Amino acid sequence: MSADVPADTMTLPMLLQRNAEIDPDSPGMREKTRGVWQTYSWTSYRDNVRDFALGLASSGFKRGDKLSVIGDNRPQLYFAQLAAQALGGISVPVYQDSIASELIYVLNHSEASVIVAEDQEQVDKALSLKEQLPRLRMIVFDDPRGLWGYDDPILRSFANVIEDGRAFGKANPTFYETELLKGRPDEAAMIAYTSGTTGTPKGAMLSHRNMIAAAEAFMEVNEVKRGDNWLSYLPMAWVGDAAFTLGMALVGRLTANCPENPETVQRDLRELGPNAMLAPPRIWENMLTQMQIKGGDATPVKRHIFEFFRSLAEHCELKRSDGKPLSIVDRLGLALGEILVYGPVRDQLGLRNARWCYTGGAPLGPDTYRFFRSFGINLKQVYGATEASAMISCQPDSEANPNTVGRPIPQIEVKIDDRGEVMLKGPNVFIGYFKQEEATRDTMTADGWLKTGDAGFFDKQGHLVIIDRAKDVGKLADGSAFAPQFIENKLKFSPFIREAVAFGDQRPFVVAMIAVDMQTAGTWAEKRGIAYTSFMDLSRKPEVAAMIEAEIAKSNATLPDVQQIKRFLLLNKELDADDAEMTRTRKVRRRFVAEKYAAVIEGFYGGRAEVEVTTEITFEDGRKSTLNSTISIHDIGAGAPVLQAA
After folding, report:
1. Do 281-352+354-469 and 474-635 come out as alike in CATH topology?
2. Cα separation of 333 and 337, whole Å?
3. Which pLDDT score is estimated for 60?
4. At CA 107, angle to CA 103 and CA 108, rounded to 5?
5. How far apart are CA 340 and CA 348, in angstroms?
6. What pLDDT does 197 receive?
7. Residue 43: which residues within 8 A CB-CB, separation 6 or more?
8. In angstroms, rounded to a whole number, what is the distance separating the alpha carbons of residues 71 and 142?
9. Residue-level pLDDT at 169
């Protein structure tokens, strides 16, 4: 078939068919099951997609229908998405940790008629919503464990659908290829729901052409080789996973590898040693925290060696970024450090074979960025958006810079409008929002430019610099610029700070709400004999507050005086996506947080020493509870300004 279909008219399932024809026996996908990697060749990959598509067709699935997948990264969930697309349908991946209200909205809004669920947990979730999903006709499960006693007629196993497909295929031998060839690249392939930082998520319709063009452009400026291993561990509902595991893997014939479960990702990463990696800032920050913990727990000699070579590496990385040559002593030190520290650390992280790694989805603090680069990890920044098929700009190997997100990828035009907002145009730009024409008109200009909502500019080298979300960039009362993300990233370099939310727009100074890292702060407390029973109890300890104040002081030392944090408090709970304080991709919903913690903000600027906080907590099953507590507000240093209450 591949010889009969021009490359520029391909769809994602057509690319799979091409790969099976020209490279039939090479691995297309793997999954870790019970400790063993199971391999699907491109032929097996294609056969599973074809048979499942035929099974869907036999049950009445047709062009334009929507199929949703929910669960951890599993080959069967990727097969199901491509199967739906092969029939002219549209896939709708949803976050596996979504609570009921989120699922109801997305599944109803997208008009999903089929749900493919990973296991019993996800099946139970879907069945509990069945009466509220009038379009739902079938729930397909992959893992049968725990489901033997279920007899709901809406339930089918993945294996049974495959069997039905094979029988349907024998009776209709040309059906699959006929439907496959009806596909057009400008048809919608998937609906990717945005993270919803400003409200209800919107369904961005991405076409086959959008996803293929983004993959091709990215591969033009990065070293991507056929057969490269890629670890598919990011949430399937995040457009970044679709861009790599489906788009780039199919275009470039990469091998996608699904870990056994979320708890084994780090172990599986080490075992696999992928050739490339994409991770959001939270993952890199967690890796850094683990390295800092291990360094702190080592013997004095090992700790001294680690800190010495870490300092040397960062010193040399700063020299490189400034264009300065390394001395012979520097080079000898790095060579010794490679044996003693850098190589073992990369091996411990599972990045020994990685030619390049990217961070994306949110800004990564420059200190964290330089740490990994100094240890020989080719970490770079990528910038994208759901509406741009995850790809807008990235950094070439020779131009890595913690302060930019690189150059626009090929085929993409990027400009900055009069208000400083980043705008783009190209074949990767989405079709529009599903059933939200007004939102589409607000996001797209009449002449086809996509408004990203991000504030930025181009530096002298032509690199794009993202300041913050345009709506979040403000000014302090004296007119000084205030970009909260920049300050928050400084704070999160500390291993003891998990999340931070800074406030200061139209205010006289900057303040911050801090959520401590339970693991590292708890370990710190235990070593000092400080007993605690819960996250709330730990956050109330005056010793912990003093330690966090010292960490904030370190961040303040790198900030202009006007942007330094003057007051802070330690939250009595972690910021949680279930409580709508964060998105499923760990982005703070600033507007919601500001409203929810309005009393805290007034307490900061009203000169109060403590504040009463009432917060609503949502449990995994959807039940809600209320948490009432009194939280202390702390001043940084003796000279911290304290305003009198009105």
Report:
1. no
2. 6
3. 95
4. 115
5. 13
6. 53
7. 20, 24, 25
8. 10
9. 96
Q: What is the mean pLDDT of residues 202-217?
A: 96
- Taking the C-alpha atoms of residue 173 and residue 158, their distance in angstroms, rounded to an integer, is 21
Among the CATH numbers 3.40.50.1370, 3.40.50.12780, 3.40.190.10, 3.40.50.11260, which is that of 2-207?
Answer: 3.40.50.12780
**Architecture of the structural domain at 474-635:** 2-Layer Sandwich (3.30)
| 620: Cβ contacts below 8 Å, ≥ 6 apart | 99, 578
Cβ-based neighbours of 416, under 8 Å, separated by 6 or more: 422, 423, 456, 457, 458
Listing from the earlier edge strand, what are the strands of the sheet with 432-433? 155-157, 138-141, 112-117, 66-70, 90-94, 188-193, 203-207, 432-433
Tens digits of residue pLDDT in 224-279: 999 999 999 999 999 999 999 999 999 999 999 999 998 899 899 999 999 999 99
Judge whether 265 and 233 are in contact, CB under 8 Å: yes
pLDDT tens, position by position, 495-539? 899 899 999 999 999 999 999 999 889 989 998 999 999 999 999
Vertex 263: Cα angle to 494 and 360 (nearest 5): 50
DSSP 8-state assignment for residue 497: E
Residues comprising the chain, all counted: 646
Q: What local confidence, expressed as pLDDT, does residue 429 receive?
A: 96
Continuous H helices in 263-374: 265-272, 281-297, 300-321, 328-337, 343-349, 366-374
Task: Give the amino acid at 641.
Answer: P
CATH code for the structural domain at 281-352+354-469: 3.40.50.12780
Distances (CA, A) of 142 to 115, 121, 165, 629: 11, 11, 16, 44
